């Protein structure tokens, strides 16, 4: 399994979400699912490839994929 520091993070804002399901339909790796409360959530966040399709397809901008790059301290000047 990859180092968790390098995994993309899925952020979903329920305050903005309209529960349209576009993100669930768009996710090619089946990371995003619709929950019992009618809102999407990242069921398999560790499988997220950071493709941003869910973010781009969300009509109200309720999803953001965060991808951080971590560098070893020895590589920094």
Commentary on this structure:
The protein is an alpha+beta fold and 77 residues long. It has a single domain, classed as Alpha-Beta Plaits (2-Layer Sandwich), CATH 3.30.70.20. Helix content is 13%, strand content 18%. The chain is built from 2 helices and 4 strands. A hairpin with a 5-residue loop joins strand 2 and strand 3. The termini are far apart.
List the helices and strands and how they pair.
Elements: E1 9-12, H1 22-26, E2 32-34, E3 40-42, H2 53-57, E4 63-66
Antiparallel strand pairs: 1-4, 2-3
Shape: globular
> What's the story with the biggest beta sheet?
2 strands, antiparallel
Succession of helices and strands: EHEEHE
Q: Evaluate the radius of gyration.
A: 14 Å
The strands making up the biggest β-sheet line up spatially as 1-4
| Strand content range | 15-25%
Task: Give the % helix.
Answer: 10-25%
Arithmetic mean pLDDT? 85
**What is the architecture at the second tier of CATH?**
2-Layer Sandwich
N- to C-terminal distance? 30 Å
Based on DSSP secondary structure assignment, what is the total number of beta strands?
A: 4
**What class would the helix/strand composition place it in?**
alpha+beta
* Number of contiguous helices: 2
Here the CATH topology equals Alpha-Beta Plaits
The CATH class is identified as Alpha Beta
pLDDT < 50 runs, ≥5 residues: none
């Amino acid at each position: 399994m990859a180092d968790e520091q390098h995994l993309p993070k899925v952020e979903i804002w329920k305050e903005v979400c309209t529960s349209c399901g576009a993100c669930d339909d768009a996710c090619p790796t089946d990371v995003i699912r619709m929950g019992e409360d009618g809102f999407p959530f990242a069921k398999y966040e560790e499988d997220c490839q950071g493709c941003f399709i869910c973010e781009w397809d969300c009509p109200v901008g309720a999803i953001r994929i965060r991808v951080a790059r971590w560098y070893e301290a020895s590589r920094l000047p």
